[in-house]
Each structure stands twice: as C-alpha cells, then as structure tokens.
Predict the 3D structure of the following.
Amino acid sequence: MIETIKLNQKIIYKVIKNLNYIPNNIEFEELEQVGKIALWKAIKSYKENKNYSLSTHCYRIIYSDIIDYLRKENKKIDYTLISLKNEDSKYLVDEIVNGDMLILEMSKYISKQNVDILVDKYIYKLTYEEIATKNNVCKKTIYRRIKKSKKILKEKLKWH
C-alpha cells in the first residue's frame, strides 16, 4: 500500500495546482496534508471492478476533501483576493490587495445582506440554492439581488 501511495502522490499536487482560488490564510502544507490523508482514504476504498482507474478515484476523493477543507477554513478568510464576474465573464475586481476595504466600499452602495450574498457566492462559492436556504428566501430572489448588486457596484465603482 505504501508503494501505491508513493506512485499516486503526484495527484495531490495536481489537484492543488488546479484550484482556482486558495485563500492567503491557507498554507500549501495544510492542503498537502489534507491531500495525503485523502489519498490514503481513496486507495483504501478503491474497488478494482469499477469502470474507472485508481488515479481517477484518487483524484476525485482528494479534490472533494480539499474543497471541503477550504470551505470549512474559509470562515476565517481575510478577503485578500476577490473575483466578481459579470455576465460577460469579465472580471469586475481581480486581486484586490485589501479585500476588507472593498467590502467597506461595497457597503456604501448596497446593503450588508447583499454584500454577504456576494461574498457567499464569489468567495465561498456557494450555490444559489445554498445561499437561498441560508437567507430564508427563494433562489430567484438571490439571483435578482446578485444581479442588481453587481449592476449598482459596476456603476458606482466604475468597473468595466
């Protein structure tokens, strides 16, 4: 089993490299450790008669465990990187040096609840359903609030 772990350890680094967003308060070594535990778990749970390879199985387990870890740790995020996208997939804000200042600036133009919804959507990567459940409103309401907030912020903060 140790030899199998060593052979598949590169998958951990591939998963970490392919992540779109890693908060500044998360160390690479933490993700590496989560990945190693997930790799061990994946190898232990793999059944050869499935229609996919061991490496595919490992990748999926490692990826989901690292994402779960990041979601749990994101509660402590310092907002040093924020990316909001408009409908054309152009970045409205990219690599903000001090995200707290951006949140304060956004709070001048939209409600705190709408700021929280944007943070949930673009920082915590929650789905519309998850945000709606969290705020006790329907999914359509969340969609409208995000769209309206982005429009206001684009005008007020002169984002192109």
Notes: Strands lie at 84-85, 91-93. Residues 1 and 44 are 8 Å apart (CA to CA). The first strand starts at residue 84 and ends at 85. The chain has two domains: 2-76, 84-156.
